């Protein structure tokens, strides 16, 4: 009599029901980065300036090579660069403008932009999602308006902080503030942001008229 090997354990129970479904907390975290802006307008302006200046310069150089006189602007520019000292106002101003434009372009190239879009948590590496800051503020505002005693709410959501100013016309301010903080904590968690903003809550009475 030979012994039969036992089957390997499966994810299903003896009744045939599937095993526990993995939840989001069990999923390994995927690194989240901010969204990068395309910046079509600065890129188009820079490309147009570079293309126009390069084309004009090449045309003038080709004209000089073909025994034609150089354009007046290039002669005047060459004479000005040869005669004006480096510490003159025009040269310093031109250098400052060129340096400012260069720094601006470097900042645009090195920073993500799209500050109005907040990155959300990623459950899958090939799926990215973002939430507009105004939509997040509107969602939190609706949640706070459900608190008893709140008359009006102003919410401003930034990349790192969220400022909430509520006006309560009845109930104790400490009780309203505690309820508002509880609702906001749950609301921020439900937004699913990768970097939840730090909450700043202020609750006050409405201003007296007159």
Give the SSE layout:
Blueprint lengths: L39 H26 L6 H12 L5 H22 L6 E3 L10 E3 H13 L4 E8 L3 E8 L4 H19 L6 E7 L6
Parallel strand pairs: 4-5
Antiparallel strand pairs: 1-2, 3-4
Helix pairs in contact: 4-5
Task: Write a structural description.
By secondary structure, the protein is of the alpha+beta class. It is 44% helix and 14% strand. It is built from five helices and five strands. The protein has helices spanning 40-65, 72-83, 89-110, 133-145, 173-191, and strands at 117-119, 130-132, 150-157, 161-168, 198-204. It has a three-stranded mixed β-sheet. A hairpin with a 3-residue loop joins β3 (150-157) and β4. α4 (133-145) packs across α5 (173-191).
Shape label:
elongated
Mean pLDDT: 81
Note the main sheet. Answer: 3 strands, mixed
Specify the structural class: alpha+beta
Which percent bin holds the helix content? Answer: 40-55%
Using the CA coordinates, give the radius of gyration. 32 Å
Alpha plus pi helix count:
5
Query: Biggest sheet: strands side by side, in what order?
Result: 3-4-5
Q: What's the total number of strands?
A: 5
Question: H/E series, N to C?
Answer: HHHEEHEEHE
Strand content: 5-15%
Note poorly predicted spans. Answer: 9-17, 21-27
Distance between the termini: 101 Å
